[in-house]
Amino acid sequence: MSAYPAWPAFVCALLALFAKTTATSVLQVVSRLRARTFLLPEDAAMLRVRPVPEEAAIVRRCAAVWRNDVENLPLFLVLALSWMLSGAGPVEAWLLFGLYVGLRWLHTGAYLAGLQPWRAILYLGSLAICWTIAVRLAWRVMAA
Predict the structure, then answer these.
(1) Residue 6 in contact with residue 83, Cβ under 8 Å?
(2) Mind listing the pLDDT tens digit for each residue in 97-108?
(3) pTM passes above 0.90
(4) Of 20, 71, 92, 118, whose CB neighbour count within 10 A is largest?
């Protein structure tokens, strides 16, 4: 047994978020190949097509999801890791980490499908989870 009871929940969240970002990357590559639209000359040359000034809409959406993930996932992972290392309980960690991961997967789907207000609602839900973890972490640190 780990000295950190929330370790399995953290690892599962990390792996699920890794799978989500990998799926987004694969979708972006497949979409780019299907559309046969490439911005970079060397990429276009690989398929013997001309470079284009703008990528396909789904490729742009995948890039937007990536940017959003780069802005948000590191903050969650640092908060979650810090809280886990401070001695977070496993039940609460499974619940909060699982909710965050689920919300981020749903957010990605809403982003790719262009579904508002769902995208914003899901984003705000995941942000609320981060704030919940941050407050619990602060309480734990201040109580020590």
Answers:
(1) yes
(2) 999 999 999 999
(3) yes
(4) 20
